[in-house]
Amino acid sequence: MTVRTLVGWLLGVVVWIWVRTLRVRVIDRVADADRTLDAPWILAFWHGSQVPLLAWRRRRRTAVMVSWSNDGALQSRVMHRAGMQVVRGSSSRGGARGLVAMVHAIRELALDAAFAVDGPRGPIFSVQPGAQACARHAKGRLVPIGSAAAPTKVLTRAWDRMALPWPFARAVVVVGPALPADTSASDLAAAIDDANSLAARALAERPASRVPTAIS
């Protein structure tokens, strides 16, 4: 086991424990018609908001694309420990192959997929085409998701302004409503913004109750 692999494994354990302490309220706005369909959900969110999302009990196992970089190798271990099906690929290197692998995994293993749509390097809050392409090829539905947590530490020097909830923080996760695969980038961005805004308002209204997390 390499040092990077060991560090990734240890970080995965830390994240596993960390998100299980969060007190999460989930607001699910997915329509019953979309819930009963067997079409995969392509979860779309902004970079920086993902930590509380790991505490949401997803409806089924979810694929996530991780780059081929050295940092990606470390992240791969973390995501695997967080219960994700890791697909290696990148929008900047091997992007087409990564998308093909993602679609194949979704179809063959009956998975959903998760995309930080303004990644991997930004610009922040600008939708890149990966999630929409995946939804089209996998015949899926785009599901915007957002989160808010308090207390939290925002890494203001990071390009994505990563929000790190403190252990035992209150958090709200907002899911849906689902959108068609041909939704425009601007409409998808607006839907993700709406989900984050609703999460922030709900967090301010009343404390969240503890619910089971998504980590297995």
Give the key terms.
alpha/beta, 216 residues, disordered C terminus, 7 helices, seven-stranded mixed beta sheet
The biggest beta sheet reads: 7 strands, mixed
The overall strand count is 7
Radius of gyration, rounded? 16 Å
| CA-CA gap between termini | 23 Å
Please list the strands of the largest sheet in the order they lie side by side.
Answer: 1-7-6-2-5-3-4
Overall tally of domains: 1
**Assembly form of the protein:** single chain
Low-confidence stretches: 208-216
Amount of beta strand: 15-25%
Main structural class: alpha/beta
* Tally of contiguous helical segments: 7
Give the overall average pLDDT: 86
Shape: globular
Order of helices and strands: HEHEHEHEHEHEEH
Query: Helicity, in percent?
Result: 25-40%
How would you sum up this structure, described in words?
It is a single chain. The protein has one domain (3-205). It contains 7 helices and 7 strands; from the N terminus they run H-E-H-E-H-E-H-E-H-E-H-E-E-H. The chain has helices at 3-20, 32-36, 50-53, 70-81, 95-109, 130-137, 185-205; strands at 23-28, 41-45, 62-66, 84-88, 112-116, 141-154, 163-175. Strand 3 (62-66), helix 4 and strand 4 (84-88) form a beta-alpha-beta unit. The protein starts with a helix and ends in an 11-residue tail after the last helix. The model is unreliable at 208-216 (pLDDT under 50).
